[in-house]
Amino acid sequence: MESQDELHQPILPPSPTETEAYIVDGRLEEVLSDTQLPWLKRLTCATWIELKLLFRLAAPAILVYLINNFMSSATRAFAGHLGNLELAAANLGNSGVQLFAYGLMLGMGSAVETLCGQAYGAEKYEMLGIYMQRAIIVLTLTGIPLTVVYVFCKQILLLLGESTTLASAAEVFVYGMIPQIYAYAVNFPIQKFLQAQSIVAPSTYISAATLVLHMLLSWLVVYKLGWGLIGASLVLSLSWWIIVGAQLLYIVTSSTFKNTWTGLSLQAFSGLWAFVKLSAASAVMLCLEIWYFQVLVLITGLLKDPELSLDAISVCLSVAGLLLQIGIGFNAAASVRVSNELGAGNPKSVAFSVIIVNSVSFMIAVIEAVIVLALRHVISYAFTSGETVANAVSDLCPFLAITLVLNGIQPVLSGVAVGCGWQAFVAYVNVGCYYGVGVPLGCVLGFKFDLGVKGIWSGMIGGTMLQTLILLWITFRTDWHEEVNKARNRLEKWEDKKGPH
To answer: How far apart are CA 354 and CA 359, in angstroms?
Structure first.
């Protein structure tokens, strides 16, 4: 019979199981190492933890990249309503000049992504602010030669064979984007600083609010004040600086960063040359990828009757460019997850995260490809009303679908490479696969075998596929215990470069 004391004991809720505790705390390494759990339960629990961490990073990052992409597209649209010459000038200035600066700056910014991510995982929090400041210094200095390129863009475009009228109009547009160079120099290190700490939602809110303001300012400046092309590009530069200012204000005023942001420091000026070398490798890796499909457009322009082919491939690459933002979002998430877990010394978590992020991104890419194939006969009408172009786009959609599938894997593998600090190695792989195999193969198929744009694109796909297979082979043969040790040694080396206190 129960005692009186036992009868009056409060009824407590059942304590959470070990599995539930793992999920709540996100202790991925402990789950993967817990041999007491059944294999299937361990896999389910680990997958759930990783998916929560992954989508918390990837979803806001995808939105940020989409918004930034749309902001640039909106600027070109405003310019297009001024006339055909203005539209051509804005497209040339954006694709021919601005994209060069964007790729270079974003690539160099991925160096701080490696260091900040691994430092955060290793709980060396004070170093994140130092790395961010060091990256801003290096990228700002890089902006100086880029400014020279912008200033002499007319002469460069004339050398490339553009007409004097178009080059002069593009020059006006490009001059208005010079302040944007330095916004990139500050924005990308800030972005990587936040991503390394899995803080990405604020950037999404800031970018979304800036997009609304950008549309209003563009309408006012271009149409009401009549500033034309220079007004459109100046507003775009201003919008990027608004994003930068809002993010800086958030970092400086929020208590969230009390450990990772301790104010301006002279330490940021030490070890700059080593940082430049890592940044240069990162820039080469990313730029070779960004420029690859620009080369496809240039080669297509050398065909006998390029007009229809260029129209069709421009539509296809516009779709690919929009959907690539999803892959770039997963690229950022993969980089953060890998660098954080390497810094924390969790080899099993790194390996598991690589598998999950590649699987999720691949499945989404397959869905994109299926939708594109299903809409192949109507997809071009979002860009043009011509039936001839629609038929040409329909013929190219199978190539677009393959490209979308590869874009679901390749950017993620590049993100893993950034998280590990493999930028220099991947740069060599990109040179060999893209420009040693893809471009020559495309030229042979397109011109020698007279397959036209289909042959050129087939060759380019071959280069991308070879690069993807090499990165897959390297990634899944990696000894993650060894990578943890390399990350530890890298952080110790970079801590030695702190400089005077």
So the answer is: 9
**% of the chain residues with pLDDT over 90:** 54
Residue 299 · residue 456 · CB < 8 Å? yes
Q: Which residue has the tokens 């553009």?
A: 162
pLDDT of 195 over the 50 cut: yes
Q: What is the mean pLDDT of residues 363-370?
A: 97
DSSP code at position 16: P
Q: What is the DSSP string of 113-166?
A: HHHHHHHHHTT-THHHHHHHHHHHHHHHHHHHHHHHHHHTHHHHHHHTT--HHH
Q: What is the dihedral of CA 486, 491, 494, 498, to 10 degrees?
A: -170
pLDDT band at 403 (very low <50, low <70, confident <90, very high): very high
pTM, two decimal places: 0.86
- Integer-rounded Cα Rg, in Å, for the chain is 25
Per-domain residue ranges of the chain? 75-270, 271-494
Residue 81, pLDDT above cutoff 50: yes
**Cβ contacts of residue 51 below 8 Å, gap of 6+?**
356, 360
pLDDT, position 387: 86
CA distances from 311 to 58, 70, 89, 162, 387 (A): 32, 20, 17, 18, 12
CA distance 71 to 212: 9
pLDDT in tens, 113-151: 888 999 999 989 989 999 999 999 999 999 999 999 999
Which residue type occupies 357? Answer: V
- Say how far residue 264 (Cα) sits from the centre of its chain: 27
Q: Is the dihedral of CA 460, 463, 466, 472 positive or negative?
A: negative
Measured distance CA(146)–CA(261) in Å, rounded: 29
DSSP codes, 254-291: -GGGTTT-----GGGGTTHHHHHHHHHHHHHHHHHHHH
Residues sharing a CB contact under 8 Å with residue 402, sequence separation 6 or more, in sequence order: 369, 461
